[in-house]
Amino acid sequence: MAEPINVVVSGAAGQIAYSLLYQLAAGTVFGQEQPINLRLLDIPPMMGILKGVVMELEDLALPLLNDILPTADPEAAFKDAAAVFLLGAMPRKEGMERKDLLAANVKIFKVQGEALDKFAKKDVKIVVVGNPANTNALICSHYAPSIPKENFTAMTRLDQNRAQALLASHLGVEVSNVTNVVIWGNHSSTQYPSTAYAKVKTNNSSKPVSEVIDDENWLNTEFVERIQKRGAAVIAARTMSSAMSAAKAAGDHMRDWWIGTKPGEFVSMGVTSDGSYGIPKDIIFSLPVTIKNKKYEIVQGLFISSFAQSKLDITAKELEEERAEANAVLKQ
Ligand code: NAD
Ligand code: LMR
């Protein structure tokens, strides 16, 4: 058995954490050979609730869970952290866009970036889930200059999972038979979910979606809109934002980063743009990546149609605007 690693969950008393923590303790993210020390970060008023979460974790009686530390102190939480899930932030309510949370949430990510910089391992892997996730990840990275930028990612895996599930249901195939759907851009209603490179497995052969779909126009219209607005649809129905599916997606994101992607398959992650596909540098933009030995690489050379280009431009512009707004908030 390997030495335990320190895994941090911020917002540990919240909704998403409640579903995520079981996955971590059960070994579905870091594998059945990797024990973990859980570092549960939340704010002081939540320490009572967190105590109950700790009791439940203990009562799971799971062998991979080595040690649990509930805390409101970022230093204690991030010390020697190997993997970090940043969930702790305010969720939106019905009628809001995710960027409306920026003023409230961006300061949290500045403080956490500074603490990560001082206390975490330099190869720590960080996924930001708290909204607006891309811009929060950018700010967090900015305030942690000693940690490589590629170690900061934003979660768009929920959008990818939604897109895979919707496409599979439209085609009448199992969800595991759909791969390589790509989420481009911001985790917001400007994101561009694309099926241009998606593959569908039918009778042991893998075909492009365009060869198996009757109504191709649906892919550029209703499909895109439903994925862009899925988070809002969940809030309207549940009166709270997605949590179970968000936790599953966070686990998927980190598991693929830790363990690697399957041959021939790519996944979407918000990563620091290196200028690939003409996307402005130094914003956190969701891109297709492959992962090996805990390092991701942006998939290169995909064809971008003029329709797709116009969508990429819109979401990139929104991210540049969010970056400017975040910087203005932090200067106040
Ligand atoms: P929640 O309100 O249930 O939990 C948030 C928790 O964060 C609370 O316990 C709160 O006390 C804690 N918190 C607040 N400030 C903190 C700080 N400075 N340090 C540590 N903890 C802090 O919310 P939730 O439903 O778990 O959602 C969390 C965030 O994730 C929201 O911003 C939500 O919009 C976002 N989200 C993102 C995605 C995505 O796909 N990227 C999906 C779902 C939700
Ligand atoms: C989601 O996509 O479900 C989350 O980002 C929550 C939200 O505000 O939509």
Automatic annotation (TrEMBL):
InterPro entries in UniProt: L-lactate/malate_DH, Lactate/malate_DH_C, Lactate/malate_DH_N, Lactate_DH/Glyco_Ohase_4_C, Malate_DH_AS, Malate_DH_NAD-dep_euk, Malate_DH_type2, NAD(P)-bd_dom_sf
Reaction catalyzed: (S)-malate + NAD(+) = oxaloacetate + NADH + H(+)
**Pfam families registered for this protein in UniProt:** Ldh_1_C (PF02866), Ldh_1_N (PF00056)
What Enzyme Commission number does this protein have?
Answer: 1.1.1.37
Which residues take part in binding NAD(+)? D42, N105, V129, G130, N131
Entry annotation: catalytic residues: H187
Give residue ranges for domain Lactate/malate dehydrogenase C-terminal.
156-326
GO BP:
malate metabolic process; tricarboxylic acid cycle
Name a GO molecular-function annotation.
L-malate dehydrogenase (NAD+) activity
PROSITE patterns hit by this protein: MDH (PS00068)
| Chain ranges of the Lactate/malate dehydrogenase N-terminal domain | 6-152
Q: Which residues bind substrate?
A: R92, R98, N131, R162
Supply the alphabetized keyword list.
Answer: NAD, Oxidoreductase, Tricarboxylic acid cycle
Similarity-based family = Belongs to the LDH/MDH superfamily. MDH type 2 family.
Q: What is this protein called?
A: Malate dehydrogenase
The organism is Ceratosolen solmsi marchali
Q: What is the taxonomic lineage of the source species?
A: Eukaryota, Metazoa, Ecdysozoa, Arthropoda, Hexapoda
